[in-house]
Amino acid sequence: MMLRGLVTLLEANRPTVVTESGVEYLCYLRGKVRRQSGRILVGDQVELEPTEGREAIITRVLPRQLQLVRPPVANLTGIFACFSLSHPAGSLELLDKRLVIAALSGIAVEIVVTKSDLAESPVILEDMVQLYRSIGYRVWVMSVKTAVGVAPWLATNRAGIWVLTGESGVGKSSLLHAVIPQTVIETADLSRIGRGQQTTRWVRLLKIRDFFLADTPGYTALETEVAHAHDIESQFFEWEDARCRFPNCLHRGEPGCAVREGVANGTYASSRYRSYCVMMDQWVKRWGV
User: Fold this and answer.
1) Looking at the domain assignment, is residue 222 inside a domain?
2) What digits encode the pLDDT tens for the residues 45-99?
3) Are both 108 and 185 inside the same structural domain?
4) CATH number for the domain harbouring residue 234
5) Is 281 exposed, middle or buried (0-12, 13-18, 19+ CB in 10 A)?
């Protein structure tokens, strides 16, 4: 009997797979399949053949849609870009970079502003939220401590695999524990191959409503190859209607630049323009053009 399922955990090269019917199997990977497919990743869609009990053999790894480098996870649907204004204060440049790279990678993205109860200035918080919403991003404002915003965030329909990203201390772990019952996390922390508690896992997928949330240790890095500088520029959607003198203007030093004029008169956010310039400088430094 051949089944199809999703790799939700990889421990000591023993994948845990959840089938389409919700049954969980601890699997082995045939040598031929390993040679053909290479390293298997959490998030891979596979075909498996049950053996004894809740164990099975993976007979095929289906083609991946995309792959995240760190943490190693396949077929990612979206990211929650977590950001806090204080305790600690996040970097808008890093937030904007995540938004751009996610879009260029074909990954959906939502902004989660954490620790709203600790915001030193409600006005600054509101301005930041309104800025990104006006650009077109879905922005959630929440506090795990007061439970503000958590319920509507959970109630939104999503599918696939999502991951929490953000700097250390931004509140990713607190948010994870707030939305996943502690008993589920404790159960997931127990090794299924007789090694006691898991302490060296890379990533695991935990089911929330109709989507999977990746519980990842450490920092999550998004990287992608950017073929042309205009790929970066195209992700700053608020500038779409700007009419520069030159149609291929990159908004750096060109004369007649409507974007730089808009930044100077307050039409466009200076923080977003700074982020754009940093990304452009990094691209030029890497490619030497």
Assistant:
1) no
2) 999 999 988 999 999 999 998 877 777 889 999 999 999 888 888 899 999 999 9
3) yes
4) 1.10.40.50
5) exposed
